[in-house]
Amino acid sequence: MTEIIFEHPLTEKMRTWLRLENLLDTIFEVKSVETDVMALSLLKSLIELSEVLERGDIKVDLYKDLDRLLGRFAIWAESPDVDHAAIKAWQVKLNSLAQNVKQVARFNAHLQNDKLLNTIRQRLSIPGGCCNFDLPTLHVWLHLPKKTQMQIIDGWVSPLVFLKESITTIVSLTRNTGAHQVAVAKKGFFQDVAENKELLRVKLDVTDLIYPQISGVKNRFMIRFLPYDADNGTVPDELEFVISSC
What we know:
The protein is an alpha+beta fold. Helices cover 50% and strands 20% of the residues.
């Protein structure tokens, strides 16, 4: 069975973490800019990342989550039945990330102050607004020597390394807290409680060509399953799937 996993945040904070994870994954995936398409994807993702980082007090929430995880590992360390070396390694890693977060003033300061990124930002709202006649400075940048390009990119991306590691660590550990259970949706609907949870994960067989439409908050959620082909597809009266509340 080929499986596909759908995720849905149950808190606004987790919604932000997932968006940051997605943008950071893209940035680090395409930072080699082997083509102009990759370069444009990198630049747009950096601009979007900078805008997301402007919302709310991300630094405070990030530090709190890392500190909360440290507290959880401290409790686990008291158990005689755990791998204490592994626990210690996690504690060292989380403490290092927390200290880095604590010391930074603004995660996106270097992006907000960059002239090229600011010029591109002004044109992103225009469909097709990255043509060379719209952005001649971008056209020049795309034709810079590879070494010069990579030095500039390194200046954008290097300060984001510990942010990416922090987000990846928090989201990965959150995903791993959820226990998988088989559930059945009747006539395309399923609802349940998820007390003090932050993330839902729904696993389906991709060959069913069905996707979940999830709505919910921290304590309760509802899932409506819909056919990928809205005109001709169907959803069985009883649909078995796997769900995790994390």
